[in-house]
C-alpha cells in the first residue's frame, strides 16, 4: 500500500520534473531519474532504476518537433514504479501494462497545460503593453503552475485512488490471465529495442554503419570484461575468507571469430570511405585551380 507521505512526495516531484524539463535542464526531468527518485521514495531503487532505464531506452528516438506533445515517459515511469513496488508486480509487466499507457494518456494533460499557457501568455502580453509588472509576474508564474498541475493532478489521482485497480490487475495477470501477463512481460522486454529502432531510423546509419558496428561490439566486449572482473572479485573474496589459501581464478571468455570479423570489417570500411574521400577532395581542389587559371 502506498503511504500518504509517499503520495505527497511523488505528487510534488511530478510537478518538479516537468518544470526541470522545460526550464532548468538538470536531468531530473528524465525517465531514468524519475525511476531513481520514485524507487528511492518507495524503498526499492533497483525496481525504479530498471523501469526508468527501460523507459528511457524506449523513448530514445521520440522527440517533439515544433512544440508538439509527446508521451510523458517521466510520469509513466513514476506510476509504474510506485505500483510495481507497492503491489509486487513484475517490473516488465508494470512497464508494459502501466508505464506506457499512462505515458500515452498524459499527452492530453500536456495539451491542457499548453492551452492554459496560451491564456497566461496573452495575459503577459497585455501586462507588458500596460507596463503592469506586478500583474505580469503573477501571470508568468501562473503559467508555471498550470504546467505543474498538468502532471500533479493525474499523478495524485492515480496514486491515491488507483491502488485497488492495480491490485486487481496484478491478481488477474498472475491468475486467470497469466498468459496475458507473460505476454506483457515479453512486450516490456522488447520496448527498449523499439526505442533503439526508432532512434536508428533518424540517425545517418548508412553513412556511419562502421561506427555502429564498433559501438555494439565494444559494448558487448565491455560486458564480457565486467563479468570476468566480477568473477575475479568473487574469487578474491573466497580466497580471503579461506585460511591462507591464495588461489586466483577467473572465467575469461576469448574473442569469437565473429567478433574479430566484425571489428575487422568495420575498420576496413572506415579505411575504404576515407580512401574515397581523398580523391574526391583532390578533384575538387583541382577544379578550383583550373578556374583560377582561367581567370
TrEMBL record:
Subcellular location per the Swiss-Prot or TrEMBL entry: Cell membrane
Superkingdom in the source lineage: Bacteria
UniProtKB keywords: Cell membrane, Membrane, Phosphotransferase system, Sugar transport, Transmembrane, Transmembrane helix, Transport
Recorded topology in the membrane: Multi-pass membrane protein
Transmembrane domains' residue ranges: 24-42, 49-68, 140-165, 177-202, 209-232, 252-272
Stated name of the protein: PTS sugar transporter subunit IIC
Organism, scientific name: Olsenella profusa
Taxonomic lineage: Bacteria, Bacillati, Actinomycetota, Coriobacteriia, Coriobacteriales
